[in-house]
TrEMBL record:
Keywords: Glycosidase, Hydrolase, Plasmid, Signal. It comes from Persicobacter psychrovividus. This is Exo-poly-alpha-D-galacturonosidase. The keyword Glycosyltransferase does not apply. Pfam families: Glyco_hydro_28 (PF00295). Residues 1-19 form the signal peptide. Belongs to the glycosyl hydrolase 28 family.
Length: 484
């Protein structure tokens, strides 16, 4: 009898759990692609949260305005289901926020969202369906808007714990597709994300979050693909990004630009970075192949340390690696206006097994600013192949510091006086098995050192040959040894 009891429990308990799942159609939602289901879906989510259960979207297109998620709920979009935003700005009221929306204070701040979760725990968005925030409906969400206030994020979690987004297709938000801010224990897995509806269309932005796993995702976005930021003293720490394919017409994988708190203990591994599949380029700078492959920057006082990039193949961007320490010192949330800002730091950064091909005219550049050094950068088994040459003019321009400017490879007004790697205000560098293949006819030396202290290179090759003295320039530098 005991064994019979356990057998029956094994059969009927799963059926009972399945029976507890709710369906949005039970609350009056209609998947006809026309009906405004905002009230019905919100009631369904509220009830699913109360019962600590799953809410199912069946096959169909379910239109809603802004929805407030609740704790202890799983939302499952079944195959063939689409959760779409009604393209009507009135259905997306402003979210209370201290984000500075002025052009000078912070362009990338929105106070609206399609799907919003605030101060929640234990929320999962999953399934084989699609979330479509209608960002390409420009009559509702204008193109080239001065700032983001009239364009909602696709999905926005703020001050949340234990958040999972997995297996879904996310397409065409009016602003960033997925933003998590001040969250802990975030898991993003197996997402197919395409976001080319408007300018400033980031894929996903992880902001001041701890314990984050991003894995097995395909991201293709008009602006930054996977972007880590810190806009609060909390910082972004303990992050793993792995097994992803990322495309962007801006930065593929980026730490910054918002860099107010800390970036610590972050790894990026086993990723492919490749040009976009989009047929229309909407990014304001118009670079189809993207701007940077791997970007890391402290410009607002951020301390960055213990970051690792490993097993990454990238193709077709203006510059493959961009590290920038500077003193822009912007505050994007007004509650931190009185928070002291000191000079940031960048140290203990590792690159290994990196292959970059079809690179533009701007070399790998690793730069600090006077008396503020980027420290402890290592490269092992890395190869950089360029397809666009610089000019003789790049050799004669005095590279300005421009430490207050927006950080990106063109910030200096020149492609820099190096065809492979440009160092300035850097110390304690180790290179081993690094290959540089400049573009044909590039007149610039392979490596340029300016204010560099303690560099050691082994097996540094230019066009598969040991680097020669004429292929590097040294200015204001000391203790440069071996393999240069």
């Amino acid at each position: 009898m005991k064994y019979l009891f356990y057998l029956l429990m094994g059969i009927f308990l799963p059926l009972n759990v399945m029976a507890q799942a709710l369906n949005v159609t039970d609350f009056g939602a209609v998947g006809d692609g026309k009906t405004d289901n905002t009230e019905a879906v919100q009631k369904a989510i509220d009830e699913a949260s109360r019962k600590n259960t799953t809410l199912v979207f069946p096959t169909g297109t379910f239109m809603t305005g802004m929805i407030h998620l609740k704790s202890n709920v799983t939302i499952e979009l079944q195959s063939g289901s689409v959760w779409q935003a009604v393209p009507d700005l009135k259905l997306f009221p402003e979210i209370p926020s201290n984000a500075d929306l002025s052009q000078s204070g912070g362009y990338t701040m929105s106070r609206r969202a399609f799907i919003f979760g605030d101060n929640l725990e234990n929320v999962t968005l999953t399934g084989d369906g699609t979330i479509y925030p209608s960002g390409d409906h420009h009559e509702a969400f204008p193109m080239h808007e001065k700032n983001g206030s009239k364009r909602p994020y696709g999905i926005y979690f703020r001050n949340c714990q234990n958040i999972t987004v997995r297996d879904l297709t996310l397409t065409n938000s009016a602003f960033w597709m997925l933003r998590t801010y001040l969250c802990d224990n975030v898991r993003i897995h197996n997402i197919e994300l395409f976001n080319h509806a408007n300018t400033n269309n980031d894929g996903m932005d992880i902001v001041d979050c701890h314990r984050v796993h991003i894995s097995d995702c395909t991201v293709d976005s008009a602006d930054d693909g996977i972007c880590l930021k810190t806009e609060a003293p909390k910082g972004t720490e303990d992050v793993v990004i792995t097994n992803c394919i990322v495309s962007s017409t801006a930065s593929y994988i980026k730490l910054g630009t918002g860099s107010f708190g800390t970036f610590k203990r972050i790894t990026v591994s086993n990723c492919v970075l490749r040009p976009t599949r989009a047929t229309k380029i909407v990014h304001g700078l118009g670079y189809r192949n993207g701007i940077t492959g791997l970007s890391l920057m402290s410009v607002d006082g951020c301390d960055i340390e213990n970051i690792s990039f490993n097993n990454i193949v990238m193709d077709g961007m203006m510059t493959p690696i961009f590290i920038r320490l500077s003193d822009r010192h912007k505050v994007t949330h007004t509650e931190y206006n009185d928070h002291p800002i000191t000079a940031g730091t960048i140290k203990n950064i590792s690159y290994s097994n990196i292959t970059a091909t079809n690179i533009g005219s701007v070399p790998v550049n690793i730069t600090g600013y006077p008396e503020n050094y980027v420290e402890g950068v290592s490269m092992h088994n890395c190869k950089f192949e360029y397809n666009t040459a610089g000019t003789v003019k790049d050799l004669t321009i005095e590279v300005p510091e421009n430490s207050k400017n927006y950080p990106y490879p063109k910030m200096y007004g020149t492609d820099l006086p190096a065809s492979g790697i440009y160092f300035r205000h850097v110390k304690n560098i180790i290179f081993d098995q690094v290959q540089i293949a400049p573009a044909e006819g590039d007149p610039r030396p392979a490596i340029h050192f300016d204010d560099v202290i303690n560099y050691r290179g082994e097996n540094v090759l230019v066009d598969y040959q040991d680097i020669k003295k004429k292929q590097f320039v040294i200015k204001n530098s000391g203790k440069l040894k071996a393999g240069i």
